[in-house]
Design goal:
Oligomer: heterodimer
Distance between the termini of chain A: 62 Å
Strand order of the largest sheet of chain B: 6-1-8-7-9
Number of helices of chain B: 7
Structural class of chain A: mainly alpha
Strand order of the largest sheet of chain A: 1-2-3
Shape of chain A: elongated
Strand content of chain B: 15-25%
Shape of chain B: globular
Helix content of chain A: 55-70%
Chain lengths: ~400, ~230
């Protein structure tokens, strides 16, 4: 019996549309930027198609990712928070500062560990420099030509417009032409540090996976080393095995691009969402707080609780609480469990268990006082043992 | 390596004596060195010694993972729900607020949610989690169902919890009376005040305390049951 084919969901159609649109836009830019492919290097066509495929895959995954209820809510709310008219100016300033400290300087990764921060900085900047050099070259957006009349000078042409000139034997020329060598040094050093950690740290060893954690390092290493072999071949070995190394390098680079949408590298495109989260939290701090319906303490913004209730409904969770005839001991109607703060959730959980044992283990229930129940407090709020930071302290209000 | 199927986590908060050994031991775990992931609260500091030791219950359908916008929280095939994957977590705080048991912690500076991962470096090779290995009253216990049945004949493990209209099942078990409890309604206890336990609390079974107390020490009166 033939299996009934599942209809393609509207989300899939929408994501495919976005992916096709963005890929087509890049293709148009390649044609325009290379002046009708006049300056397009045919030898690099494999790279171009790999990048176009990666663009399709990345856009498709990104669009599907945004369809998840929590992602969709944050995407919408993040932009709303950013474009608040009263805060737009300040948001632009704060946003630029956060891009500098968090994205470019990896501040939050240094907070996770200094060695981890150094490792990520080396890999990230190595990749960024390499991408900034190779993509414009591959797309024909950038090429170099000798200046007519002065053969000692080179001219960089960007999008068909002459940008700047430099003597090709100069220090500037040396650094420019070997840009990929410097970037590969950064990447290889970073990959070595990451590998060292993954091989020595018991905690990492327990949770790491080959495809997710080792594959990206192996790919980056392969791209860097084969790229360096090309330089070594033409600089010191009279081009020995250059053709073979060029194909090997192309395979590693194209393989990396084809894998880009599926594995760990997707975080490069996902990560900027933390900026949106920052604006959302700023908006939350400026607005009304949510008060726990058990202990009465503020624990996050009312907006956040209401958004989470909506997200949970969309996901099919049913944390709604049926009316219990008016009020509980706290004197407040709790229509949804999301109105209960994390410490009160823990207290409710253990109290439910203790009550199950009541009468068996000699427990005693104290009379209620009528007001909100007292706030549970950390047994040990010391460093590393209680909240992990100010936001955690607000969540747990110890 | 997955956690062996025969080994399970059993928690019995009523046995907790609030000694904080678990808090200290938890920080020794290699997967989150220096940070304690266990949540240990005084439920009502002024009126009771009741403490609430709560580890991640490792839900079969983890709300924390579902509400994560970055898809950063993963559950492995052995049922363990892990801390957020570091490249993905954007520190939105959704998981901290949505976890029905109030378990995850948030390190905003490091842009990272962290939580109990059942000491995966230990349990995946058959060892006890740090907290269970040091808990003197075995409020946090790790072993086989047979061991628990033998050691605690009056109790049985349940892993079904009710939060309003939502039923949550978990990998970690909660110990309840053997005879009359199949599931635990958490929200029903939400407005109940704290529970105290008198000196003669019977968590260790039988009249063990009588053997421990010198004859000269007068026994306090047991409070009347409600």
């Amino acid at each position: 019996m033939a299996r009934a084919r599942r209809p393609i969901s509207p989300d899939t159609w929408r994501a495919t549309g976005w992916a096709l649109g963005v890929t087509a836009a890049l293709a148009v830019l390649i044609v325009v930027g290379s002046r009708n492919l006049e300056h397009f290097d045919a030898a690099l066509v494999g790279y171009t198609f790999a990048v176009l495929f990666a663009t399709f895959g990345l856009t498709y995954r990104y669009a599907m990712w945004l369809r998840r209820p929590p992602t969709g809510v944050y995407w919408r709310r993040g932009w709303q928070a950013f474009f608040r008219p009263s805060r737009l100016g300040r948001n632009l300033g704060v946003g630029a500062k956060r891009v500098g400290s968090e994205v470019l300087a990896n501040r939050f990764i240094f907070k996770r560990g200094t060695l981890r921060g150094v490792t990520h900085m080396l890999i990230m900047w190595g990749c960024l420099i390499a991408v900034a050099i190779t993509f414009p070259l591959v797309f024909g957006w950038l090429y170099f030509r000798p200046v007519p009349g002065d053969l000692a000078l080179y001219e960089a042409v960007v999008f068909g417009f002459a940008a700047f000139r430099f003597p090709h034997g100069s220090v500037i020329g040396f650094f420019l032409f070997h840009g990929l060598v410097w970037s590969s040094f950064l990447v290889i050093a970073g990959v070595m540090l990451a590998m060292r950690r993954r091989m020595r740290e018991e905690g990492a060893a327990a949770v790491q996976r080959f495809a997710e954690d080792f594959m990206p390092l192996i790919l980056l290493f392969a791209v860097s080393v084969t790229g360096l072999m090309l330089t070594a071949s033409y600089t010191w070995m009279s081009g020995y095995a250059y053709g073979f190394i060029a194909i090997l390098h192309a395979i590693t680079v194209i393989g990396t691009f084809l894998w880009l949408p599926f594995g760990k590298f997707f975080h490069v495109f996902q990560r900027p969402a933390q900026l949106g989260v920052g604006f959302y939290k700023d908006a939350g701090r400026d607005s009304e707080p949510a008060l726990c319906r058990r202990c009465g303490h503020a624990f996050t913004s009312r907006m956040h609780v209401e958004d989470l209730i909506e997200v949970q409904r969309q996901l099919g969770y049913r944390y709604e609480i049926a009316p219990s005839g008016g009020d509980g001991a706290a004197g407040a109607q709790v229509e949804h469990y999301q109105w209960i703060c994390p410490p009160c959730r823990r207290a409710s959980f253990v109290t439910a268990q203790a009550l199950a044992w009541q009468g068996t283990r000699g427990g005693e229930t104290l009379p209620t006082t009528g007001g909100p129940l007292p706030m549970p407090v950390f047994a040990n709020p010391g460093l590393g043992e209680g909240p992990l930071g100010p936001e955690d302290a607000a969540n747990f209000h110890p | 390596m997955p956690v062996p199927e025969t080994l399970e986590f059993f928690i019995d908060p009523a046995r907790c004596i609030g000694c904080q050994a678990c808090v200290q031991a938890c920080a020794e775990c290699d997967t989150h060195r220096g940070q304690s992931m266990i949540q240990l609260d005084f439920v009502d500091r002024a009126r009771s010694t009741q403490t609430a030791p709560v580890v991640c219950m490792h839900c079969d359908s983890p709300t924390c993972a579902e509400v994560c916008p970055a898809d950063a929280i993963k559950r492995t095939e052995d049922g363990v729900v892990h801390s957020a994957r570091k490249p993905r977590c954007i520190a939105c705080n959704n998981c901290v607020l949505a976890c029905p048991f109030g378990v995850p912690k948030m390190d905003t500076e490091a842009q990272l949610m962290m939580k109990c991962n059942l000491c995966y470096d230990r349990t995946s090779v058959g060892l006890k989690p740090m907290c269970a290995s040091v808990c003197p009253s075995q409020a946090l216990a790790f072993g086989t169902r047979e061991e628990m049945a033998r050691l605690r004949p009056n109790a049985r493990p349940v892993n079904t919890f009710q939060f309003g209209a939502q039923t949550i099942t978990t990998k970690v078990n909660l110990m309840v009376p053997a005879d009359n409890v199949d599931w635990v309604d958490v929200t029903a206890a939400m407005h109940e005040p704290t529970v105290t336990h008198d000196l003669l609390d019977d968590v260790f079974g039988g009249d063990l305390y009588l053997d421990l107390l010198p004859d000269a020490v007068p026994l306090p009166d047991r409070p009347a049951q409600a």
